[in-house]
Amino acid sequence: EKEAAKALKEAEQVLSAVSDDISHDSRERLKESIDAFNSGDFSLSKGISESISRDIRGASDSMKEVQRALRQRKQLKSRFPAGGDWESRLKSVSGMADSGDWEGAFESLESLTNDLRDFESERDDAQELLDFLNKEWKSMRPRLNSAGIAATDEGRTKSERLLAQADAHLSEGDIQSCLSSLGEADLEIEALRMRT
Fold this sequence. Notes:
Elements: H1 2-16, H2 20-23, H3 26-38, H4 42-71, H5 73-78, H6 86-98, H7 102-146, H8 154-172, H9 175-195
Helix pairs in contact: 1-3, 1-4, 3-4, 4-7, 6-7, 7-8, 7-9, 8-9
């Protein structure tokens, strides 16, 4: 009985400390907990009360995290690549927050930031590969000239075009197309290397 009373009191305190958009259905559940307590079902009352406290703390934490992220919206947007649905996903987070769906907003925000982190990692890897191939290409051009392979050679022009395409795709945030162009460029450069 003491534990149930303590859990019930804690749930009442937590509930009174939060705004209505967090506690909308918890007030009804608190009434259920009080009814269970008054009818002697202390175990049920304790369970409901602890659940209320847990849910409200979770929603409150989600609300704080989402509000913090939305205050830093400019920083987040500055990381978005060109193209994709990044803007609409952030607007969706904002819309959920406006409607009081803090858990949903937090989950969507977490998904957005994880996807963005994954994208940035892939982009960094692609940039590293592009830089490597550009360096290889730059060091190879003099050897091609020495071997009499002119700048108008089909293999040379194709290599140049593919490296430029890879760079353009990377700038647009299209990692897969960038990697595809890099793979083709690598094959062309290797074929040219065999000719020198």
